[in-house]
Every structure is written in C-alpha cells, then in structure tokens.
Amino acid sequence: MVQLYNCHPYGSQRIVPTKQVPEVFCSGRDCVFVTCAGGCKVEVFTVCKDLCQPLCSFNTLGKVIHMKYCDIGDYLVTIEEKNNVSSLRTYVNWRCQATGSSRVSVRMVGISKESLHSASARDQMEIIEMPLSEPPLCLACCPMRGDLLVGCRTKLIVFSLRYLVLLQDEPVLDFDRSLVLHVVGIVPSHITFCAGYIGISAELEVMIFKLMSEAYELPVAASPKPKGLEVLPEKDLLQSNTSELDDFVMCLRPVELVGEECKSCNIVVTPESIGLSADIASPFQVHHILYRRFAPDYTEGLSVENLRLHSLQLMPFYKTGSLIVADGKTASPKKEVLSLFCFFSMPHTGYLYSVGNTIQLVSVYRYPERSQQAILTPQLLHVITSNNLQCFTVRCSAAAARDEDPYIDTVMKTCPPVSLNICALRMQLFIGLKAIDHFKNYIIILTKADMEDVAGKGRSPRTPQSRRTVSVRSKTPAETESGWNLYVVSTMSTIQIYSELVEYSKRYDTMKTQGSIHLLSEAHLLVRATLMAPDSDELTDKDELLAAFKGSCASLGLCFSMLDTKHSHLALPYFKMSCLSVSEVLQRVLSSEPNPDYGKGFLFYLKHTLYEELEEPPNQDMALKVLQIFNKSEPSQLPHVLCSSCMTNMCPKKAIEYLQKLEGGSPSVLISLTKAFMALRMQDAELCEKEMQQHPEMLLLCGLVEEPRLLVGHGMKEILPTHMAYYFREAHPGLLVASAVALYENRKINLKEAEMLFKVLCGKEDEEDAIPQMLIDFWEALLSTYPPDSILQDILYKLSSHYVFQLCKPQHVCVRPLKSPEDLRNSCSHFGMISPWITKMVSAEPVPCHDCGDLFKLQSLLCGPSMDIASFVPFLKFIPDDNNHNLSIHLLCKTRMMDYENTMERLLDRCPEAVMEYARHEIKDGSQALWWSKLLPELCHRIRQSESESKFFISCLRDTLEVIKDELELQDFLNVLPDDGTALFFLPYLLSKNDRMIDI
C-alpha cells in the first residue's frame, strides 16, 4: 500500500545548454556528460548551485551507444560503434580539455609503464582501448573500488582499477583484465557492480551473486519468501528450456530463489581468473544471493518494451574507517559496506531487496502508470513514466540501522520499522520523459516530445490498442523532433523536506490517527539516511541534521505517548534519543492538550525514567505534577515514584499527605517506609521511628527489598546511600546489613555495589587500609546465605585478610561486630568448631582483643571445611609466631596440610601441654603410626634431656603408651619400646598387654 502526500522534494530546474538533440547522457561528481544524436562527441557541463555551464568537450572514436562515469578514478567509459563494430574505451584525464589542451593519446589497456611518458599524466587526455572477444552490451562501475564490469553476450569481464606510479606525485590510471565470468542461460541487458556483488538482468529474469575467494566461504542468510511467489524444483526449471509443444509459447511461472537455491535455476556463472595481480589471481567462487523470475505483464500490450525489467541497481550504505593509501596514491577514508540494497523494476512494480547481511524483501512499489526508468538514492526513489516524475520514500536507512546495531529496538533506542508503508511524495508533470540519472542532490531527466504527445494530453484515456501503437512506434528522426530538453532538477535539502513532512503531519494531530506517526517516521528516516551517508554534501550542516533528528524523535515520542496501542512503549526510546529532560517532556505533554488523558506510552516513559538517576531532576512544581499524574492514573506507584532521585525536589509534607490518603486505614509496610523516608528528609527522626515501629523487622526487610531506592541511590554511576541508610547505620545496623544481604540475594544490587554502599556509609577509617566493620559484618552475614563457590572463596579471602590485618596490629581500633564467633558457628557451616588443642594453647595467655573476636573467627574459619588453605598460606609470612595465639594459626595451617610431625615438634617446644590434645584430635586413621614412630621416641628423648619438665613429659608418655598398647600386637609393642628404659616403668603396660592376650 502506497500513501500519497503532496510534498515538494524537487526545487529549481535548469536546462542543460546542449545545442543538439541529446542521445546518451550520464552524470557524476559535478558534471553531466552528453552525446548528441549521430555525433562522435561528448559535451561536458558542470553543475554548481544555480548554474549549468559548458565545461569542455572531446571527440570520441565512434558513435557512443552507452557510457558510464566513475567517481573513483574520475574516468568515463563508453561503448562506441564504428563501421558496425562495437568497442570499449575509457577516457582518462579528460578534464585537461577544459584548460584548452587538445593533446590526446590512445593506448591499449595493460600497457607496461616503461612505454608511458610522464607528460601523459599531466596535460593530455588518454583514451584506453579495451579489446574484447565479444561486442560489449552494458557497463557498470564499482562505487567502492572503481573497478569496471563489462557485460557481453556470454560473459562478464572485470577490469580492476590500478595506478601506475611514474613520477613521485603523478600516478597514471590503468586497468587489469582480472576476471572473466562465463554466463550460460541469460543474455544480460543490464548489469550492476558493487563491493564484489554483481547483478545481471534480462527481460524477465534477475540474478544477484557475490564473488568470494575460495580461501574463505561465507554462507548467505536466507529470509522468509514473500507470499505469492512459488519456488519451483530444479526439474521444472530445466523443462522451461524445452517446449513439448512447438506450436505454443510457454509462459514461465514467477519464481524466487534465495541463497544456494539459486543453483537450481537455468543460469550458470563460471569464474575464470586471468589477472596478473597477486590479490586477483587467487581462484574465486560464485555465492548465489537471489534469483527472481517474473511472468509477462500484458497490461500494456505485447510489446517487449512493455514487459522487460529495467533499472537494476545496487546501492551500498557505508561505515567509514581509517585513511588508506593505495598504489602510492592517498585515497579518501576507506569505505566498508554496512548494508547493500538491490533495486529492480517491472513496468508497474518496483522491488527493493536487502542483499548484504541478510536477504530480505524490503519494499514493493506499485506505480499508478507504466514506468520507464527509476533511480534509487539513500533518501528517495525517483521514477519516471511517460509524463510524470514520481518520488517515493525508501526504507534503506531503517534496514541499515538494524544492521549496524542489532539491539536497536530496546528501551534506549529504536527506529521506524522496515515494514512501514511506502509514501509517494510528489508526481511532477513532464512531457515525453525518456531517461533519468542522478548525482549528489540533482536529478537529470531527458524529455523528447512530438506534437502527438502534446496533443494527446487533452484527449480521453487511450485504449489498449492506442497504447500498443505508441509503444511499438519507431523512433522519430532527430530532425523531426518538435521538442526536447535535458533538465537538471535539484532536489530539496533534507532539512527542507523534513520540515515540510513535519508541518504536513500537524494536519493529523487533532484526528488522532496513525497518519501523523507515519509522516514523522518518514521525516525521521530521511534524516537518518543522510546522517548515515559518509559522502553526503549535506553533512556540512551536521549540527542542523542532528537537531532535526532529535526533533523527530521528540515528536514521535509525543505521538506514541498519547496513544494506547501495542506500540505505545516506543515513547520511551524516542524520548531517550531526543535528549530531552524529564521537565521538557512533561511540558510538551502537558501543553499538547488542556486536560490530557495520559496514555500508556507516557506512563511507561515516566516509570522507566523515574528509575534512572538524572543530572537535572524536575523542579518542585514539576515533581508535584508527576505525583498528581500517578495519583490519578496509578496510585499504587506513589511509593516507588517518591523514592526516585528524580523527585528530590518534591515537598516531603505534600508527599506524606498523598501517602496518608493512599494508605487509608490499613497500614502498608512500603507506605510506612516511604513516609519514614520522607520524614528523614525533613530531619524528623521521631516520625521516622514511629512509622517503622508499626511493623516487625522481617516485614521491614521485605519492604526494603521491594523498593531498594529507600537505601541505595545511584549518582553518576556511583553508589550513594540515602538518608535512611545513614539513619540505619546509627539506629538499626543489623537491619541495614540484613537489607544489603537481601538486596544482593534478590539481585537488586550486585556484590560490588553492596560493598561500595558500606564503604561510602562508613567513610575512611582511622587506620590506613582498614576495612569498615559494617562491611565485615556484611561479608560474615553473606556467608550464611551459602553463596556459589566463586563468590564464597572471594568472601573467605577478604575476611581472612581482614582478620590477619587485625592480628598484625594489636593496637587497632576495636569495633564490636554484629556477630560473635559463636553466632557465626551457629549460623553457617563455613565456620567450624575450634579444635581442643587450640583452646588449650590460647587458654594460658590473655586474648589480645576480646571485643572483636577476630582471632577466634580466623581460627574457626581455618577449622571449617570451606576455607582454601592454599590461598591462605601466603598470609602466614605477615603473622609473627611470638605468642601462642599467632602460633596456633601457623600450626592450624600445617595441620590442614597434614604436616603432623613438624606440628608436634613445635608444640613440644612451645606448648607441650597441648601435645596430647593435638594427638588425640588430629592423629587418627592412617596417621596413627605417628604415635609410636614419632611421638613415643620424641617423648622418651625429651624426658632424658629435660629433668625440670620430666614429670609433664612422663605424663604424656603414659598417655601415649595407653594408646599404643591397645593398637599394637605384643611383639610390635615390645619392638617400639626404647631399649634403655627401666622395666619398672614399662612393666605395668607389658602385663596389661599380656593379660589381654591371654584372655583372647
């Protein structure tokens, strides 16, 4: 469906002052090239602002049948005919003809640089002959590399553009015949070439394919096929070439093939690399993109002219990169194809495809009358019929925007859909339109009208027979033509068309239809297309274009905000892209209607915006207006609205009044917390405490989880505690820590944000590198939630490093924690029971800091099952073992690493009273041999060496003998006893052992 709006995309028009009847023309950069009927001469006219003046002219070697201009290389390539022989020639350095130079040289393509003279690059035009084995039929130039594609009856030839450097600053343009594509099954009437993509078309067929090196192969993504098209199996396509009944004309059915399915059509393309360049000589593969075949259109009669495809075109959207230097010549910024679009047209229908990243039918254009030719530009599609120049909008920028950013359709940004209905902007009358071309902001059209055409404008519509007669009419000789003109029509700037579309959309404001949104979307896409074109002349006014882009976003956001449709949520991303503040959006919405009925889109925008931290929150009046909007539309959202940083200018007393009306007779924990939040902003701690006392702590915790912004705010991407968080730090520290743990568990904040909250709350400690005690309390409380192992080990590492820090500085400032070591052992299994031998060790010495309990917490942590002892070992070098408290940490680590022998030696040296407790608790199972192999000999040795402590060691020895006599056989027991011992000491154990053996 095409919507028609009478806008004015065309501005002034100028006549190209050619003196004879134009036959063939083309345009590019800043010039129009014209060849007249029967002549062998090219006239060049320069177009600048309101002037169209002759620049130069030069003779050709034959009659020009077809010609193309290429901006890269600034060359003109022609198909010429002389003596009924078609030739291909390229005209280089033709601009020197404008200086009065008449020197011309002719050379063959690929000639060696030694035979070239340096003067040829400066002051003379060169004609490069390009001999072909077949007559050339059509031409195409690559807008990215400047390469040339020539279509012949059975092949396509690629000529690669290159520069031969003769002098330091004088490169000479040349071509390398690099690739031949042998084509079977189609005779190309039109070809197009861009970035390795090639399109060929005949009367009813079109194929798009890409040339790829065999070194890598990229699959082509297929898209769903449009309805109404039939994909035929290969056998049906092959049967189309042979008719079973010679007396009948077989009409093929329309078909569309995508990707590798194209191989089943009757067109075969075989590449043959013949170039000499290293980057060209590698073998190529043909990757099929699209094949489309149409049924004949008999609405205009049986003339072939009325049936065939026309206007095949590939149009890229670029992304710019860094500067490059090619063959000694500094080039413009390197262009990389972001998206590629293909356009082709039947007489009454045009088709626009995206063929780059994905294959997608973007738009179908229905013309009101038979078209003759069309030109696609990034902003608009221009179509000529016999007497009308028509202008349609395109959807290329919408598709390219999604290729550039696949996540464009989010709450932060969006773009009008590719499926948006096409809009016809203008149908401008011209009599006898024959051809059209385009460059920059100009449309060039050729008109040729005879007296029959002029007189026919006043007649009634012609019958099919009369149309058929006109279509097959032979061309009138040039001398009998009564009127012809070659026009240069300037297109209006993007800003002017944008302004007209916006003004046009205001007609639909009061009707509340989709017409306003459609026109604003057209304006938005028009500006977006210009901004995405890196070589657009209009980018000199980029600030004005950006302002128009933001303005279109603001207008679209306003439209969607007032509608209650399934697309109303788009108000949010459009307002985001407009860069308007909340106050400015509010003013626009409030000024749109005297008593606006707020739509879903506007409320959706407000809800999401109120969850963000704004640099400029609304003033008090606007904040009150926001509160009134939600009080009217969604009263249940009032507590959440008041907790937003956007409402910092809201009067707290007014807020409490609204909350009291909302609460009614039944107190709500969220409303009570919000009222307490407002009371703290008024510095009324008594009212705050009164509101909190209405609910138990567990319900308060649930309310804080439901609305995290009561405690945590975000300013410039940083954590900012609220007034309530500071109040809880002093009055309810346990509730604050529990709330932070609950918020983390419910994924309202991450671990880093929770840690930052306590660091900001507690500020800097007196000691350098000290960790706030409330953060330690948070880590300890977090362990009771049994976090995943990755988080668990990180928390254990942080806690252990803090405990070590406290041990290494006995004179630290002690702050009583929320949980004692006993509380931690009872709340989670990560803290284990302290071994009895450790208790024995530390009982003889006073505890250095009993209030904080860091020593016992570290001992409990090392006794637990979760601590990775290997990660803790590096801390030992910071802990001196000058007392039993610190020594216990060292021995705990040795024990966890199963170094029992050294541990027992250290205990016998430093704290022998703990040896037996250690042995009973740690030496078990597979380590029991240490009782008789290590402990027994060591005790006997120390009894002999130390007479002062012999009584204590003898007691330990007796305990050891009690253990081993029950574990060993009699003979083994005798073997482990020392040979210099007295029988009186060991006799009771021997008798006890022997009696047991007798009983057995």
Automatic annotation (TrEMBL):
InterPro entries reported in the protein's UniProt record:
HPS3, HPS3_C, HPS3_N
Which residue stretches belong to region Disordered?
Answer: 455-476
Give me the Gene Ontology terms describing cellular component: BLOC-2 complex; cytoplasm
Region forming the signal peptide: none
- The BLOC-2 complex member HPS3 N-terminal domain sits at 3-477
Domain of life per record: Eukaryota
Q: What are the BLOC-2 complex member HPS3 C-terminal domain coordinates in residue numbering?
A: 496-995
Composition-biased stretches, type Polar residues, lie in 462-476
In terms of PANTHER family, this protein maps to: BLOC-2 COMPLEX MEMBER HPS3, HERMANSKY-PUDLAK SYNDROME 3 PROTEIN
Quote the protein name from its UniProt record: HPS3 biosis of lysosomal organelles complex 2 subunit 1
Q: Which organism is the protein's source? A: Leptobrachium leishanense (Leishan spiny toad)
Report which gene this protein is encoded by. Answer: HPS3
